[in-house]
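Researcher: Please translate sequence to structure tokens.
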Amino acid sequence: MNCIWCKDKVIIQTNWTTVLFPQKQSKLCKICASRFQVLKGERCEVCGRESEITLCHDCTRWKSMYYPERDPLIKNVSVFTYNTFMKEFMAQWKFRGDYILGEVFEHQFYETFRKYFRSIVKGAVIIPIPLSKTRLMERGFNQAEVLASFLTDQIDDQLIRVDHEKQSKKSRKERLETKNPFKLRSPIQKSVILVDDIYTTGRTLRHAAEVLIKNGCPAVYAYTLVRS
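Model: Translation complete:
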């Protein structure tokens, strides 16, 4: 089997452990896999970015400027940093429609989820951030749904998107000032874990969390592949 990124041959190490307990074969070679950077060390307790202080400057700003009483998003956990290789990989997967690339994240995404959400996942609803119909037709798939499928086969679709503006083309200021693009088909009375591919400013996730909280959801968390 060849690496799905660089096309070099993937070398499979064989020993008694792999013979007795075979594991799913990686779709990346060791060199390409090592280019992803996993988040480690101290992190902001809300947005999950690497930070030496408990609440990073961005989240302090969210609290003081937008949510002095209650931030609708309790916590975000991300798996990887947005380094150069991840940017290239995400562009190929997300914007050029190379669907199979997302499968390389399955194991790490699932294991990190178990580590951080084990205590709340049993009673929570998992909701991928939806794309607009226009964006879904352009890409052919929703990357957030792909990621959510690694966690459960019971994905909730009560959250819908009612606009199709591209967030990736906006400045930070423009992102923060966007109108809420989400609505609910029906209220959700359980805790929710939102799933998305990337946390940039947190605006999209908080928009979704706002709608959920206003409609009776008691708590909203986020789980994202990448922290920009």
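Researcher: Any highlights?
Model: Strands lie at 75-81, 125-128, 159-161, 182-184, 192-199, 220-227.
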